Amino acid sequence: MNHTSVNRGLMMSWAFDEGTGTSTIENVAQVRNEIQYVFNQAEFNEPQEPQWREGVMGSGLLFDGYSTYIAHTVHEGNKNMKQAYRDALSIGVWVAPRFYGWGSEGKLSAIVNNHDFDRKQGYLLGMFRHGSWSFQVGLEGGAWKEVWSPDGFELPKNEWSYVNAVFDGVRGEMKLYLNGSEIASADLPRGSRLADASDTELLIGKNNHSSLLADMFSLHMFSGILDELKIYNRALSPEEVVTSYRYVLDSAYQGSHPRLSYDEIKLDRTPLLTDRHRPQYHVSPAAHWMNEPHAPIYFDGHYHLFYQHNPLGPFFHQIHWGHWISKDLVHWRDLPVALAPEKDQLAPDGIWSGSATYDADGLPVLFFTAGNDSASPNQSVALARSTYSLDKNPDLVQWVKHPEPLIVQKKGMGAFGDFRDPFVWKDDGEWFALVGSGIEGEGGAALAFSSQDMMNWTYKGPLFKADIIKYPYLGPIWELPVLLPLGSDKQGKHKHLLLVSPVGQGADVEVFYWIGQLDKQNLSFIPDQEEPQLIDVGDFHFTGPSGMVDPKTGRNIIFTIAQGDRTSEMEYKSGWAHNGGLPISVYLRDDGRLGIEPIQELQSLRGNKLLSLHDKLLTETNELLQDVQGDMLEIQMEVESLSAKQLGVKVRRTPDGEEETLLFYDMNDSMFSVDRTKTSLHPGEKCRGIQGGKLELSEENLRLHIYIDRSMVEAYANGLKSLTTRVYPSRKDALGLEIWGDGDLLVKSLDIWEMQSIW
Exposed, middle or buried: residue 544 (CB in 10 Å: 0-12, 13-18, 19+)? Predict the structure, then answer.
């Protein structure tokens, strides 16, 4: 059959062959359609075009999953042709999905649609959960008909598929074709006609009935590449479908099915590198949403770190496990998503937080919270194994889930329905696990489990639980418990560090810790002091802890999320939300307190040294600082008070002081704080107020180790506390520094380096 004859009855066609620009042509009517894309007009970086990629023929258009779509109005000259489609309609399109939507409210992520579901009008071709897909139409008389892909015919991620949907009202049938072969059909009354939806927009990549999340994010958007979209006003025959499919194979691929390079479709961090607020030496996803990094593990010369990730956009939804790899804990490389929700009975609704450990053969395994909303409770502990034993790939890209959960919560095992974030470690051939939960009426708890084989687990009761009456801010539920060995104190007692993150009514969502002793036989923790302590005294920016003992150095290293402190509108405009904090080393000091320091490997990021001085008074120091500018800096300073009771440093400061952020120590009340009352004049940014916490320095001078990375500010005080905060100045000249005090002070030392991007 001649391919040209197939194009008879072609109503609309998009070849997406422009390869550049912010518009694409509908070829039948020669109408130019604008491509909606968040960075067409960018607020925080340079305007950028939609992302064009290699297609099956020429170029294709990449849809980012939350902002990219095309709205098409049928041209006057096409209206007669448009009326003809009421009796028959065919759609052919090449699709390469990048990620699947969750299918909120049962709606499809639209490939192309012109429908009004409430009035049962028009048509919709789109994808659902886990790669299933459907063609749906509204018929005259008010019926809504659907045909779905059967099991085994899902659209694979990161691969090209040729999809055809055919409505034949005369014969009374609907059909789906995948790569030229019929895979599904549905019967209709003969003589059926599509109900007209001409007053509804034809949308490519966005559902006509997209639900809105957080008043900002349209769900049910397509994520991936589209190419060669054609819509006909007649029913294509099976032979014509095959001819269209074979035309691409024979003309461009020597008869083989098109292959797609992962680099062509993966999330690309390049558009975000020029964002003036996005950190450049803190670890982050290539784009879109992350929450806590977790499951750090060292294997075969590499560190692996995973993270909670929504790859569809910068909003919390449809959580996967993202994956980074590094040789030095500083320079990270993006790897494909490690774990994703799948069509199974284990974790179809989310792959939530967990940890990593080694199996009996020394190979890495991942323990994760399996999200299954059809189960009660909807959270259980599951396991995934690396394919390293088969492929010897040190990147550990492939993971295979054990088909059944390993630990399922039962009544009386913590607060029923809250059971997540397993922290698993191996000790002397035995495995132990903590799971975040609570005790009804008592407060948050870390539940303890043990196993001889890593597969069969025995519940041991709470390792430790809160007294919610005495410490209401510890909340009813704990998440992300972490237990790390600290070694022996001066009395020879072996100490451990327990970290938790409280949530729920009344909880202060920060990282609290206790130092104490572990009763390994009874799996219980006895704190040295009942009252919990904070590692970080910022406000809600240092959260979501995970930890590991570094096999190379023996250090205890903690990873956290640095939350963005932005509105949904700002995150939509930016295309990203959150990043990791800098890895920190924690240790037991000689005085029994917890020592906290950024890891030494961060020194590899130092560029030019901008300033180095010693024993200067305040005025002279600030004169020397006038020429020091930057939004990616490392600062080390020691300040001695001569008469000042408050002293510190202003960062991200404009020359006139209209915008600035003050990090300061108050000697009267032993408080280490940040003043953000002048941080930003931008009306949409949230960074405001004064936040801080206790820091007992006794007779020590104030020593600050500060990292500035665009919107990130991390300050470490005397190796005892950190203060993590966010700053989003509106002015581009907010790049200055100034030492500050309410009286006389002596700058004992001040060293400042430029810092380099890890990307």
Answer: buried
Beta carbons within 8 Å of 291's beta carbon, 6+ residues apart: 307, 308, 316, 319, 544, 561, 563, 578
Integer Cα distance of 433 and 457 in angstroms = 9
The angle at the Cα of 181, spanning 111 to 175, to the nearest 5 degrees, equals 60
User: Among 145, 86, 87, 123, which Cα is nearest to 201's?
Assistant: 123
Residues 6+ apart with CB under 8 A from 596: 535, 584, 585, 586, 716, 719, 720, 721, 722
Peptide bond into 481 cis (omega under 30): no
The strand pairing partners of 63, in sequence order, are 224
What is residue 194's DSSP assignment? B
- The residues of the chain scoring below 50 in pLDDT are 76-77, 80-81
Residue 250: in which H helix or E strand, if any?
Answer: helix 238-252
Q: How many beta carbons lie within 10 A of that of residue 251, not counting itself?
A: 12
Rounded distance between C-alpha atoms, residue 250 and residue 246, angstroms: 6
Query: CA of 248: how far to CAs of 19, 70, 231, in Å?
Result: 18, 24, 17
Distances in Å between the alpha carbon of 688 and those of 461, 565, 678, 691? 42, 10, 8, 9
Rounded Cα–Cα distance for residues 640 and 278 (Å): 34
In this prediction, residue 84 carries a pLDDT of 61
Give kind and range of the element (H or E) at residue 618: helix 618-625
CA triplet 689, 691, 697: central angle to 5 degrees? 145
What pTM was estimated for this model as a whole?
Answer: 0.97
Name beta bridge partners: 606: 755
438 Cβ neighbours under 8 A, 6+ residues apart: 414, 415, 418, 444, 445, 465, 475, 476, 477, 478, 504
Long-range contacts of 674-682 (CB under 8 A, 24+ apart): 674/538, 674/713, 674/715, 674/723, 674/725, 676/725, 676/727, 679/652, 679/727, 679/728, 679/729, 680/727, 680/728, 680/729, 680/730, 681/729, 681/730, 681/731, 682/728, 682/729, 682/730
C-alpha–C-alpha distance, residues 301 and 287, integer Å: 27
Measured distance CA(132)–CA(126) in Å, rounded? 9
Phi–psi pair at 708, nearest 5 degrees: -110, 125
**CA 277 – CA 730 distance, rounded (Å):** 10
Residue type, 232: Y
CA distance 21 to 2: 33
CB atoms within 10 A of CB 250: 13
Residues 6+ apart with CB under 8 A from 484: 496, 497, 499, 547, 548, 549, 556, 558, 586
- Pairwise CA distance, residues 748 & 417, whole Å: 54
Place of tokens 């699947």: 100
- For tokens 């991936």, name the residue: 224
The dihedral through the CA atoms of 681, 686, 690, 693 has a sign that is: negative
CA 319 to chain centre: 8
CA distance 388 to 407: 25
Name the percent of the chain in helix, strand, coil, to the closest 5: 10, 45, 45
Token pair in block for residue 285: 């996803």
How far is residue 382's CA from residue 132's CA, in Å, rounded to a whole number? 24
**169 by DSSP, 3-state: which?**
coil
Q: Name the residue among 260, 287, 252 with its Cα closest to residue 38.
A: 287
Q: How many Cβ atoms sit within 10 Å of the Cβ of residue 692?
A: 21
Query: Which residue has 């509105």 as its token pair?
Result: 567
Number of other CB atoms surrounding residue 153 within 10 Å: 17
- Listed in order, strand segments (DSSP E) in 452-534 are 458-465, 477-488, 494-503, 512-519, 524-527, 533-534
